[in-house]
Amino acid sequence: MWLIIRRKLKTQDLIPYWDVSSSLGSVCSLCELTPDSHVHLFFECPFASDVWNRMRGLAGLNASNSNIYDIIHDIMPFVKRRTSESVVAKLVVAATAYYIWQERNWRLFQKGKRKVDQIVDCIKTVVRLKLLSCKLKKSKSGERLARLWDLPDAIFI
Ligand SMILES: [Zn+2]
C-alpha cells in the first residue's frame, strides 16, 4: 500500500517512451485497452473495477468509487481506530490492491490468467483468515461485519 500511495510501482506509464525493449508491455495486461498506471490498476481498469465492485460492500465501503486515492481518502478518518470497520476496510483494500498487482504481473510474464471470480475468492479467503486472527471490539456494526464475513463470536473482546 505504501508503494501505491507513493506511486512507486513500476507501471507502464512510468517507463520511458524510448524503452521499446521493455518486458513490461505497452497495454494493461488486465484489460488490454490502455497503458497501465497506478490510477488505472487501482481500480479504474474495467477488470480491476469488477473485482473492486465485488469487494467494496464487504469492505463496508459501498459509497467509495473505483479510485484508490479517493478510497484511501474515504478511510483516512478512521484508519487508526481498532474498530472492526477500520480493520476490515484496510484489509480488503490492501488485499484487493495486492491481488490486482499480482494478476497484472502474472499476465505480463505469462504465468497464468485468473477470472474475476477466482481473484475475489482469493481476496475473501486471505482477508477472512487474517480476520480470524484479530481481536476486535464488539459493536453493532462489528457484528454486522462478522456475519458478512462468517466470523465466530470469539474474535470479539
Ligand atoms: Zn486495464
UniProtKB/TrEMBL annotation:
**What sequence ranges are listed for the domain Reverse transcriptase zinc-binding?**
1-52
The organism named in the record is Tanacetum coccineum
Name it.
Reverse transcriptase domain, reverse transcriptase zinc-binding domain protein
**A Pfam family per the record:** zf-RVT
List the keywords (alphabetical): Nucleotidyltransferase, RNA-directed DNA polymerase, Transferase
Q: Which domain of life is it from?
A: Eukaryota
Has keyword Transferase?
A: yes
Q: Which PANTHER family match?
A: OS12G0587133 PROTEIN, REVERSE TRANSCRIPTASE ZINC-BINDING DOMAIN-CONTAINING PROTEIN-RELATED-RELATED
Q: Name one GO molecular function term.
A: RNA-directed DNA polymerase activity
